């Protein structure tokens, strides 16, 4: 696979090769995308008819890159006088400054051409290539090249202009230039992406949403964003650089919500640049001590779109929180169910969990009171439409077998849920972590009901139900001869007995009986699950285990961060530090940017974590991972109006200072130190108003 | 055999019934925070009719004014028929630009809660069943954890 260069600003992004070119690629997401549609599928630069070769590529910022190029192939170029710099930025629209430099002593006459094309492919058509339902029309007028796609009222348009006039034809622009000796020629190419909405205008104008921003505006917003987050000081350079990378990636993934006009975090580049319920809520949970401001818009957008009806195509039920919202053609014309799609069985519980966790940190009563109705509807869903078999557990089974998701848990690939021998269970399925989330949601819902909703009877009922669920769960899911919890229960009353990372989420939820926690921790840090680089999604020895299996063997940083949080909850601080250390070690090999997933090979066999071939990067909950790891290492936990700091650092980190942690206490500094000659961790915290 | 498409008069009556039902349903449907006015313009032929739905404190007032509102949605009579019978879905219609909105989308998303379920879709618990599930589960548990139970 050729190396690719990405620039992005929220849900607008450009993926090109190392020359900066985009070659037509019906089955791979290269090109310029916005709102799930590809607005440029061809963008190729030639000089005198020949392609160029990259000498170097500078990824200056997430929204900006620069390519240094020379004509010809490396095999036959010798001290060329001509070189080219492409400097591109993205900020809602796309701009490319093209400079042709002549270092020769003679003027150069050159033909510079940019081949351009737009196929308006919906992202789902790239996953499963299909013919467009209407043709693309191309017009040339007033020096502009316009590509338009219209299907009924659905219209997308790409408009390309150049600051220097060129010859414009239906396939691109040609510039016949003369560059004097030791001089350069420049033009700026501007690509606007238009989405038709009300009154014949772009929909973002009708809804007063933000429009294109300049690179300077994005840079300024990034500086403000970084300045408003806690400052990290540590002797571990890996930790500090990974922290900064994470904050920058989360800034890059922010986009403007259509429904609330506030910032939400897209899930991951290139496939998931949109709102996912689960991903966005986990990202908020991971980043609460650092970026509590991410949560209110996320909760608001999800509450607004909460399920209110039965709709088999969308797997929608009243009270359910969405799985995925898309803006493209396939969603609009109902070729895909993402308008929005509700096929996740965990997002509804996570909604209540996040609402409570946010309140614990910020003391913001308003949000939890405002969305009481939606939180109650979510809690009702657990015991009604979530419990498909009436067994006291949350189950899932899609009612849209054509385009719905088979597995509606975070491991949502088709083969992720299996028995130890590799067989796949029938439907519905009740995976273990869903029950943990249900338990946690009830406990947290009870807290909100008592503190904020003025309903102690409801609180008592929820706590009673949670206690019953915990008892039931510890009886039915426990695989006695293996001493772990089954991955799932099947509809026949059997245990889906694979050993998986899902048991780590149970620690986070608190549904694990205290006396069984050590067994679970033993498995998580044991050789079958722990690779040395992290905890694998599925243990070796299972029938479906595969080092490179998406949910059946790879290591997911997000998964590890939640497990580390669970280890902290049950007091296994040393083990939590081991997981945190493994993740930070891995992050070093990814320049501080943890990918969606990497291979499950044992660390003894590979000196570095092996990349998963199609992992998304940046990915929001991978970017959130280092933040949660820092929380776990420092042992940060709100307690009333105070922040508890109880550090437990791994051997390799001697000192972590986190300054200006925002919360209901104002701002607090936390310090964790590890004495070099002992295993002793020291803590310190100071609060300031 | 397909049924005849509804006549213009039937569509008009259907819309009136829908809007008249909103005040009595508002308490169950609307959250306390929803406040604002949605203006719905239903286009039919060359003309159109307006419905103004003011939402506040979990109550609704409906009138036929056309004054500017916080959110204005424009759509055809046929599409509106499909929405109030559950055959179509508002967000998909907005995405394909068959309905358009100006103003606060959030209010429209709240208003969406008044639309009924898709035809043929219902409580998913009806689709499966597990009367003997508990019995089998208990047998599984007895096999899985004999030592602990003893």
Strand order of the largest sheet of chain A: 6-7-8-9-16-13-12-11
In DSSP terms (H or I, runs of 4 or more residues), the helix count of chain A works out at: 18
> N- to C-terminal separation of chain B?
65 Å
Strand tally of chain B is: 5
Q: Poorly predicted ranges of chain B (pLDDT <50, ≥5 residues)?
A: none
Determine the structural class of chain A based on helices, strands and strand pairing.
alpha+beta
Round the Cα radius of gyration of chain A to an integer and report it.
Answer: 26 Å
Q: What is the rounded distance between the termini of chain A?
A: 53 Å
Could you report the average pLDDT of chain A, rounded to the nearest whole number? 94
Instruction: List the chains of the largest interface with their residue counts.
Output: A-B, 63 and 55 residues
Q: What's the helix-strand series of chain B?
A: HEEEEHHEHHH
| Helicity level of chain B | 25-40%
- Compute the number of strand runs of chain A: 31
Note the topology.
The complex is a heterodimer of chains A (689) and B (150).
Chain A: E1 4-9, E2 12-17, E3 31-34, E4 37-40, E5 42-47, E6 52-61, E7 64-71, E8 82-91, E9 93-102, E10 108-117, H1 123-127, E11 136-141, E12 144-151, E13 154-162, E14 167-169, E15 172-179, E16 183-195, H2 203-206, H3 215-227, E17 231-234, H4 237-252, E18 254-256, E19 263-265, E20 275-276, H5 277-287, H6 295-304, E21 324-325, H7 329-332, H8 347-362, H9 365-370, H10 372-383, E22 430-431, H11 432-451, H12 456-476, E23 478-479, E24 484-485, E25 488-489, E26 495-496, H13 502-509, H14 517-524, H15 557-569, H16 573-589, H17 620-623, H18 625-634, E27 637-639, E28 642-644, E29 655-663, E30 666-674, E31 681-688
Helix pairs in contact in A: 5-6, 5-8, 5-18, 8-10, 8-11, 10-11, 11-12, 11-13, 13-15, 15-16, 15-18, 16-18
Chain B: H1 8-29, E1 36-44, E2 47-56, E3 59-63, E4 71-76, H2 77-84, H3 90-95, E5 100-103, H4 105-111, H5 133-144, H6 146-149
Parallel strand pairs in B: 1-4
Antiparallel strand pairs in B: 1-2, 2-3, 4-5
